Amino acid sequence: MRVLIQLRPSPDLVAAVADPGRTATTADVADGLPGVELDPAFVPVALPRPVPLAGGDPLSLNQPLDFSLAAEDASVLVRGTISDDELASRVTLLPALRPDVVGVFADPVIESTPTCGGDPPVGDWHDVERLLNVPGLHAEGLDGAGVALAVLDTGINAAHTARQLGRGVTLDAARCWSPSGVPGRPGEFEVDHGTMCAFDALIAAPQATLIDIPVLLSTRPGGSALDGLLSDAVAAFAHLRNVLDAQPAESRALVVNNSWGSFSAEWDFPVGHPGNYSDNAAHPFNLMVASLDRAGADVLFAAGNCGRECPDGRCAYPARPIVGANSHPKALSIGGIDVNGERVGYSSQGPGRLTARKPDVCAYTHFSGSRAFGEREPDSGTSAATPVAAGLVAAVRTRWPSTRLSPAQLRALLRRTAEDRSEVGFDYDYGYGIVDPAGIIAALQRRAKSVA
């Protein structure tokens, strides 16, 4: 089984891993872990320590938390494999044999979330543009200019995206990142799922700056070109923390689109095991999500395509399929509707695993847009709905950086202004409702007057 191993080495080594200007290898940090085949290609990642702002349980995400990367607080993650036959014993023995081992966690396969079924598109991206009130957003100066928009996926083909949009695309190669062993240059990957996500995000925020992070192009033994490992996302989020920290505080804005998830418990520890990912707020990746939110990033995840009417064939969770970070309390979980406002049958219903009230809101999907999969194939799945919502968030961030409107405040605003689709204010089909750009604009105008 592939695993992430959390260690607490000497403060000097922790500092070397946490400093983006220095290099520390897996051998430096974890050489000689008995029974573990370490992956030398994986660059160790510093994991910040959660620090409750007012006391309390440091592993509870439902409270104000800060995160410390100080050498005396942070820990380090490495990646490796433990034989399935020895897994249970090694997980127990490693901390006893090596006191610097803090924990052993699942490193599940992560996959993109295209839709099931072969239904034709409903409307096109110009319908989405109209429904998102893009002219109204732009009239308010909300077009994504100066906002970094990271797409963690299969890589972006910027030239194709620009052709389909009929306008230029901005991509910052210096801030892009790829897992070890993934060939290719930022913005020049094959047209695929990640290109669809980039296109859909730029509908509302055409001036946003793309950051290309092809986490789903990393391969595993026996794997395909469209899945990666959660450890690559851990490393990507560590990179994005550095991107965010390098921004001026007065204009800090980073939107992170994640149209992927874990479909099966096969690669995870059982629920209740301390190394579990799906239901465990203390898993390193779930802590990374909380840390990036605290630093000022807006993190969006697809709710997934395991809806009861038309589940993706890979869906293997018998219940509550919105798992792990896709159900994170510090992330926006996005469900899917068509341009007629109807929930698409593959959009996963809640409750979520880490937070019951998921999805948060719904956005548009199953429309003709990027043509990433051919002339007649729609941009579909919650994979498309998520970047549509991410583009709306990026548009808001043009004039409302995280120091002016925190990620938590923006999440609350999106939920509060959403077009309710039920009689109770929240339901497990639509969340709080459909994103409402006109409502968002009105709320921001009121907020601007109240703080003037």
From TrEMBL:
<keyword id="KW-0720">Serine protease</keyword>
<feature type="domain" description="Peptidase S8/S53">
    <location>
        <begin position="144"/>
        <end position="433"/>
    </location>
</feature>
<feature type="active site" description="Charge relay system">
    <location>
        <position position="193"/>
    </location>
</feature>
<dbReference type="InterPro" id="IPR050131">
    <property type="entry name" value="Peptidase_S8_subtilisin-like"/>
</dbReference>
<dbReference type="GO" id="GO:0006508">
    <property type="term" value="P:proteolysis"/>
</dbReference>
<dbReference type="Pfam" id="PF00082">
    <property type="entry name" value="Peptidase_S8"/>
</dbReference>
<dbReference type="InterPro" id="IPR036852">
    <property type="entry name" value="Peptidase_S8/S53_dom_sf"/>
</dbReference>
<keyword id="KW-0378">Hydrolase</keyword>
<comment type="similarity">
    <text>Belongs to the peptidase S8 family.</text>
</comment>
<keyword id="KW-0645">Protease</keyword>
<dbReference type="InterPro" id="IPR000209">
    <property type="entry name" value="Peptidase_S8/S53_dom"/>
</dbReference>
<dbReference type="InterPro" id="IPR023828">
    <property type="entry name" value="Peptidase_S8_Ser-AS"/>
</dbReference>
<protein>
    <submittedName>
        <fullName>S8 family peptidase</fullName>
    </submittedName>
</protein>
<dbReference type="InterPro" id="IPR015500">
    <property type="entry name" value="Peptidase_S8_subtilisin-rel"/>
</dbReference>
<dbReference type="GO" id="GO:0004252">
    <property type="term" value="F:serine-type endopeptidase activity"/>
</dbReference>
<feature type="active site" description="Charge relay system">
    <location>
        <position position="153"/>
    </location>
</feature>
<feature type="active site" description="Charge relay system">
    <location>
        <position position="383"/>
    </location>
</feature>
